[in-house]
Each structure stands twice: as structure tokens, then as C-alpha cells.
């Protein structure tokens, strides 16, 4: 197969040359073709071939022969998903452009498709997280009596599915769809709470350090330097080991410890940013004026500094949320994060991960762990798209 | 030149100091555990005499400060202590295979992890620089936008998602690489490379995105400078302008970001090693965390932190050396 790919790549060299030559001949040496480097011509040909291959692979995925269809099943789902998401994002943007206030309409008009996809995805996740109890057909810890474990997703009885459980059941017979929906509540909710805590801690300490300066600033900054010198996931794992011993002794759930540990570790990054932003604001004249008026520390921080630091902190909030979310998912995946029986995506990937190996002959069985991992990836990608767009917009970069 | 040397020495001293403080933090954190290993291996029915005897054997009856300096002195001589679990196993079976010291346990795994990191760097660094140069060359085209979306997605996906996707397509559906990396001693280089290809590719996906975006940004930053304008007006081709004129000047931030990403590899490696059951130091760390084998956890943490600090230090020194404004401070 590698040999065939290599031959195809070499053949494309010839086609690229012919393509450029034909372009020059047909358009009477138009500048576009005359100045086209060979690499660009090759890029066009390569792009066209990849597109043709994708269409071919998609048709293979719809083939009636199960052996062939199984092999291209995931590619087919990925292509269909991409198209559906793009159309949904496009419609959402169209909707946003025509409905709402003048301000929101203006915002949607300049929005790239990736950002509108991000906003749409975040809204859907938020709805699932808030109304998980109403939407989910079963409870997250509910082992339904009389239902087999490991029912295959797809709901087709001939393939080992059950129409009542469209995504099947897990290793002890819990409904995977319900657990995925509750996962939105648990994983996203806990990550959101952790990020808020990290911002409360890091933000207030950072502003305090910037406003007061002196020895407080020195102590806090050096402490943060030391904490940041340890890789965060490693430090979190170390502290979670210790917490896992303390948790049963104190009778506090391990998840609470995890929230505090990750919030403290991530607040160091927030502290750095808040202090840097705060220091730029503290030297402004209006702060001096407020100080001369005799305003207290609380007024200075919350009424003068905070409103002027919202824009960078908001972008940081999005990025920080992604990091926290991924750290929690990684910890859960390693088995020391959110504890069962709470439904959580990282734990689900770990528990169901082995099914990926059955993908060659039963592709549906492999979808469960990929759905849980994909749910994590989709949200972080969506948040990153939105933050990317916000940063691009606020920096005014046009390149 | 003297001032450069002084700055570098200053940074090195600062790095060493940080390392010392980090070792204290790790040691104190581990010793916050209630109860100790002696109680936990003997279980509920432990007699006080048995607990005391194990404590004496492992030196757990000494005060905290003494234990810290004992540990630190040992670490400096390459003695990372005795693995509790292995020591226990050895006394239980009556065999002494010589693998009870943490150092003996970590050494081969450390070599494996370094091998994985090297393979990853060998793929990721050239790949991301080429991709970054191409994206800068064809900026604001379909190619640039597609790579932007692709890299943003792979930065923000969790490592295990990328790992399972690669397993799915490259190991299960098209059996090209093995999905489990069972590496043992005496393997030929080619075999070892094949077995560690999937973890290396996963890590490549994770770090390439960041490096590529920084390369692109660093080059585009320079494109507005007058000397680039000059080169363009001379009639040089865009490729030549970027590779010959922009890239050398953009090298400083690129080297910096490469060092930082190699540091990032260290945290990424834990999850990836667990997915592929790769016998590296990350796998050992997670296993030891689960059985609370304190000396191993301590040692792994210290190794990770050291590597992290060293790479950050390198990035720091590189950026000083490559920036004349920092090299000659006023």
C-alpha cells in the first residue's frame, strides 16, 4: 500500500506539470499560471486527489458488502458529521445575522464559520448539561434490571443492539446515552466550577499583588514561580495520590479535593496574567486619583482595576477552561479523577477503550469510547475556535 | 561576552535553586500522607512491633528534616531509595533480584521514554517547521485555513482521543503499526521504532500544532520589515525570501517554542504511555501513584520536574543568546 501511495505521488508530479502547462496554454499565459511555482501546482493536484479519494472512501463506506463498509465506516461518519456540523453552523450564523439586536447582528456578520460552529456547540452542551435530568432516558447510576451488559450501539437487534438503548449499555448494564448526557453535567460542570475557583483565587491574589506590591507581591510571585516549575499534570497526580488517602479519613469526596487541587495549580497561571494586567492599570492616572480620593482597597480592585481588565481575562477564561477540562479528563482517564458512580467522559473512555480493537468487524462496538472521547474533544475545539476568533478580533490583526 | 556568561550563570543558579525548592515541595507533599507505608502493607491486623520493625528498616522513624537530607544526599549520588513495593515483593518471595532500588527500576524505563521523546522530536520538529513555512508562504489561502483548523483541533483534543483515533485507523482498520508497544531489552532498533511509532505519532500531533503556529506567526511578524520588502523588490521568489531572509531571523522564537514544547511532551507522555502500555517512566509513575509506592512517586516527580526545569532553562538561555537587546542589557 505504501508503494502504491509513492507511485501515485510520483504520477501526480507529472499531472501537476501538465496542469500548469495546460493552464498556461489555454489562458494565453495569464499571470496566475505564468507565475505559478511548481509546488503550488502540485498542491492543487494533491488537493483534488485527496478530495476524490474522500468521495471514493465515502462511497465505499456506503457499500452493501459489510466487509468493505466496515472498513470505511468511521471515515463515512466523520465526513457526514463534518458536513452536518458545517451546515448547522452556517444556518446558525444566518439565523444570528437576521435575528436579534443590531449589535448581535453586526457580530454575526463578521464571524467566521468556525466561530459560529463553536458558539452553537457551546450552547448545545450547556443545554445538555443544565437539563441532563430531563433529557436522559435513564439515571446515570441506574443498572436497569433485566438488561444485558455490553449491548452494542446502533439499536439493531440483528447486530446485537436494542432499540431502547440507541448507544448500547456499558460493562455493567448502564445506558451509555444517559451516561454521556450526564457526563456533560458532571465533567463540564466540575471543570467550570474549577475554572471559576481558579479565577477567583488567582485573579484576586494577582490584583492584590499588583495593587499593594512590596513584600506581598514578592512572596506570592516567588511561590507561583515554584509551583509553575512542576509540570501541572504531574503535580496534580502527586497531590491526588495524597488526597486519595485523606479523602476517606476526612469523609470528604475525592472529587472535592480534585477541584481544589486543580484550581490551585491553575490559579498560578491566572495569577501571572492578572498581576501583569493589573500592573499596567495601577500606574494609570485614574487609579492615582482614586487613591487620592481615599478609596479603599476593595473599591480600587473591583471598581477600577477589574472593569478595565475584563477583555484579556475573558479570553484567558476560555483557554483556562479548556486546560482544566483536559486535565480533569486526563486524571479521570488515568483513574484518579472524577470517581464512579458519577458518569464522566474520561472514565468512560478508560472503561470502554478496549472495544476500539473490535472496529474491524464490528465498527458499532467501537463507537462508544470514541463518542465519549469525541465529546471532550468537540467542546475544547469549540471553545478554542471562539477564543481564537475573539483574540483575532480584539487584537485587530489583519496580517 | 562577559555579561552574557554572567547572565547564563545567574539563570543556572536560579534553576538550581528552583530545583531545590521543588524537591522540598515534593518531599513535604509526599510526607503529608496520613499513616505510612508500614501500616498500609501490613493491613488491619498489624502488630505494633511489626510496624516498628518495618519503619526502622525503611528509616521511617527518623524526623522529617533528617529524612529529607538523607533522601537528597542519596539522590545526588544517584541513589533514589528502595521501592517499597519491590522491597516488599522481594522479602515475600525470598528472592533478591537486585531490582529493589528505585534507580534500577527507573533506569530502563527512563531510557525508553527518552527514546520515545527523541523519535517524536525527530518527526515533529522538521514537520512543523516545514508546515509553518508553507503556511506563512501561502497565508490566507485555503491551505492556510485548513492547516489552521487542523492544528487548532489537534491542540485542543485530549491526548487519549488522538491516540484512539490513530489506533483505530493505523492499527485496527489498517494493520500498519502495532497498537500495543511491548518493548523489551534486546530488541533491534527497527523493531523498537515500529513498536513506538503510534505513541510517537500521537505526541507528534500534540506538539506539532503549537510549534507550527508559532513558526508561522514568527515568520509573518517579520514580513513587514523593510529588509524583507527590499528582498522582495530585488525580485526574489517568495519561497527564497522566506527561507533565506525571514527564517534565520525568526529562528530565535522558533527554537524557544521547540524547547517549551519538548517540556510539554513530558506531561503529555504520561497519558500516551498509559494508552499504548508503553513501558516508560510515565506508566511507572501512574502505576506507583495507584499503589502509593512513595519513593518511586517521589523519584518520578523529581525527574519530570528536573527535565521540565532544564528545558525551560534552555529556552530561557536560548532567547537571551539570540536577542541582542537581552544580550547587552543597559
Q: Could you say what the CATH architecture of the largest domain in chain A is? A: Orthogonal Bundle
Helix share bin of chain B: over 70%
Q: Unreliable stretches of chain A, pLDDT < 50, 5 or more residues?
A: none
Nearest-integer average pLDDT of chain A: 84
CATH class category of the largest domain in chain A = Mainly Alpha
Helix and strand composition category of chain B = mainly alpha
Beta-strand content of chain B: under 5%
| Termini gap of chain B | 14 Å
CATH topology of the largest domain in chain A: MetI-like fold
* Estimated structural class of chain A: mainly alpha
CATH superfamily of the largest domain in chain A: MetI-like
Please report the two chains with the greatest interface, counting residues with C-beta closer than 8 angstroms to the partner's C-beta.
Answer: A-B, 57 and 59 residues
Span of the ends, CA to CA of chain A: 41 Å
Quick recap:
Chain A is an all-alpha fold and 399 residues long. Chain A is built from 17 helices and no strands.
Description:
The complex is a heterodimer of chains A (399) and B (330). Chain A is mostly helical. Chain A has 2 domains: 1-61, no CATH class; 176-395, MetI-like (MetI-like fold). Chain A has helices at residues 2-26, 31-34, 38-61, 66-71, 73-98, 102-109, 113-130, 132-135, 176-212, 214-228, 232-250, 254-282, 285-293, 297-308, 310-334, 345-352, 367-395. In chain A, helix 1 crosses helix 3 (38-61) and helix 16 (345-352) packs antiparallel against helix 17. The mean pLDDT of chain A is 84. The longest helix of chain B is centred in the last third of the chain and has 39 residues, at 238-276. Chain B has 15 helices and no strands. Chain B is an all-alpha fold and 330 residues long. The model of chain B has no long low-confidence stretch (mean pLDDT 80). Chain B has helices at residues 2-30, 37-42, 48-58, 64-76, 84-93, 102-137, 142-156, 159-173, 189-195, 197-222, 226-233, 238-276, 281-291, 294-322, 324-327. Classes of the chains: A mainly alpha (399), B mainly alpha (330). Chains A and B meet through helix 3, helix 10, helix 11, helix 15 and helix 17 of A and helix 1, helix 7, helix 8, helix 12 and helix 13 of B.
Amino acid at each position: 500500500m505504501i508503494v502504491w501511495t509513492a507511485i501515485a505521488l510520483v504520477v501526480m508530479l507529472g499531472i501537476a506539470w501538465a496542469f500548469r502547462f495546460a493552464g498556461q496554454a489555454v489562458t494565453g499565459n495569464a499571470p496566475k499560471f505564468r507565475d505559478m511555482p511548481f509546488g503550488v501546482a502540485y498542491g492543487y493536484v494533491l488537493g483534488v486527489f485527496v478530495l476524490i479519494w474522500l468521495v471514493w472512501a465515502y462511497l465505499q463506506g456506503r457499500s452493501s458488502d459489510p466487509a468493505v463498509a466496515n472498513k470505511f465506516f468511521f471515515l463515512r461518519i466523520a465526513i457526514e458529521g463534518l458536513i452536518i456540523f458545517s451546515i448547522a453552523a452556517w444556518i446558525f450564523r444566518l439565523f444570528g445575522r437576521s435575528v436579534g439586536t443590531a449589535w448581535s447582528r453586526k457580530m454575526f456578520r463578521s464571524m467566521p464559520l468556525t466561530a459560529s460552529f463553536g458558539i452553537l456547540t457551546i450552547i448545545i452542551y450547556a443545554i445538555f448539561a443544565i437539563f441532563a435530568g430531563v433529557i436522559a432516558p435513564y439515571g446515570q447510576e441506574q443498572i436497569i434490571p433485566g438488561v444485558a451488559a455490553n449491548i452494542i450501539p446502533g439499536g439493531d437487534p440483528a447486530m446485537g443492539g436494542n432499540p431502547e438503548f440507541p448507544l448500547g449499555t456499558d460493562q455493567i448494564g448502564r445506558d451509555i446515552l444517559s451516561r454521556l448526557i450526564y457526563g456533560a453535567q458532571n465533567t463540564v460542570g466540575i471543570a467550570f466550577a474549577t475554572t471559576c475557583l481558579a479565577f477567583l483565587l488567582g485573579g484576586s491574589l494577582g490584583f492584590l499583588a499588583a495593587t499593594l506590591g512590596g513584600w506581598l507581591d514578592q512572596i506570592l510571585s516567588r511561590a507561583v514561580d515554584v509551583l509553575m516549575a512542576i509540570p501541572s499534570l504531574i503535580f496534580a497526580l502527586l497531590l491526588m495520590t495524597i488526597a486519595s488517602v485523606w479523602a476517606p479519613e476526612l469523609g470528604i469526596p475525592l472529587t472535592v479535593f480534585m477541584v481544589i487541587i486543580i484550581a490551585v495549580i491553575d490559579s498560578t497561571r491566572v495569577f501571572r496574567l492578572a498581576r501583569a494586567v493589573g500592573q499596567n492599570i495601577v500606574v494609570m492616572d485614574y487609579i492615582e486619583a482614586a487613591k487620592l480620593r481615599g478609596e479603599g482597597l476593595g473599591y480600587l480592585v473591583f471598581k477600577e482595576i477589574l472593569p478595565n481588565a475584563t477583555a484579556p481575562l475573558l479570553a484567558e477564561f476560555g483557554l483556562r477552561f479548556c486546560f482544566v477540562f483536559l486535565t480533569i479528563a486526563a486524571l479521570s482517564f488515568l483513574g484518579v479523577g472524577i470517581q464512579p458512580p458519577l458518569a464522566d467522559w474520561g472514565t468512560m473512555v478508560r472503561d470502554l477503550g478496549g472495544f476500539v480493537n473490535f472496529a474491524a468487524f464490528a465498527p458499532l462496538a467501537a463507537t462508544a469510547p470514541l463518542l465519549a472521547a469525541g465529546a471532550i474533544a468537540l467542546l475544547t475545539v469549540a471553545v478554542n475556535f471562539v477564543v481564537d476568533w475573539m483574540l483575532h478580533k480584539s487584537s485587530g490583526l489583519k496580517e | 561576552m562577559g555579561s552574557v556568561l554572567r547572565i547564563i550563570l545567574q539563570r543556572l543558579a536560579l534553576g538550581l535553586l528552583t530545583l531545590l525548592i521543588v524537591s522540598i515541595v515534593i518531599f513535604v507533599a509526599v510526607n503529608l500522607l496520613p499513616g505510612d507505608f508500614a501500616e498500609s502493607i501490613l493491613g488491619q491486623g498489624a502488630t505494633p512491633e511489626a510496624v516498628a520493625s518495618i519503619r526502622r528498616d525503611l528509616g521511617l522513624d527518623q524526623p522529617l528534616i533528617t529524612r529529607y537530607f538523607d533522601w537528597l544526599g542519596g539522590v545526588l549520588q544517584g541513589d533514589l531509595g528502595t521501592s517499597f513495593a519491590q522491597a516488599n515483593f522481594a522479602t515475600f518471595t525470598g528472592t533478591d533480584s537486585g531490582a529493589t532500588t528505585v534507580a534500577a527500576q527507573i533506569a530502563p524505563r527512563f531510557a525508553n521514554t527518552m527514546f520515545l521523546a527523541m523519535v517524536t522530536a525527530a518527526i515533529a520538529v522538521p514537520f512543523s517547521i516545514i508546515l509553518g513555512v508553507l503556511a506563512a508562504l501561502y497565508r490566507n489561502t485555503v491551505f492556510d485555513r485548513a492547516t489552521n483548523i487542523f492544528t487548532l483541533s489537534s491542540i485542543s483534543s485530549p491526548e487519549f482521543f488522538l491516540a484512539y483515533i490513530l489506533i483505530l485507523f493505523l492499527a485496527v482498520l489498517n494493520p500498519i503499526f502495532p497498537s500495543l508497544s511491548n518493548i523489551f531489552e534486546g530488541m533491534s532498533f527497527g523493531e523498537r521504532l515500529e513498536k513506538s511509532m503510534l505513541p510517537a505519532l500521537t505526541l507528534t500531533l500534540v506538539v506539532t500544532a503549537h510549534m507550527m503556529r508559532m513558526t508561522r506567526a514568527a515568520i509573518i511578524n517579520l514580513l513587514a520589515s523593510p529588509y524583507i520588502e527590499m528582498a522582495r523588490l530585488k525580485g526574489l521568489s517568495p519561497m527564497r525570501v522566506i527561507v533565506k531572509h525571514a527564517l534565520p531571523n525568526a529562528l530565535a522564537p522558533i527554537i524557544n517554542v521547540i524547547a517549551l514544547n519538548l517540556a510539554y511532551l513530558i506531561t503529555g507522555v504520561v497519558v500516551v504511555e498509559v494508552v499504548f502500555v508503553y513501558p516508560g517512566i510515565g506508566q511507572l509513575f501512574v502505576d506507583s501513584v495507584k499503589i502509593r509506592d512513595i519513593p518511586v512517586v517521589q523519584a518520578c516527580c523529581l525527574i519530570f520536574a528536573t527535565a521540565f526545569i532544564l528545558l525551560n532553562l534552555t529556552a530561557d538561555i536560548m532567547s537571551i543568546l539570540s536577542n541582542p537587546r537581552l544580550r547587552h542589557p543597559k
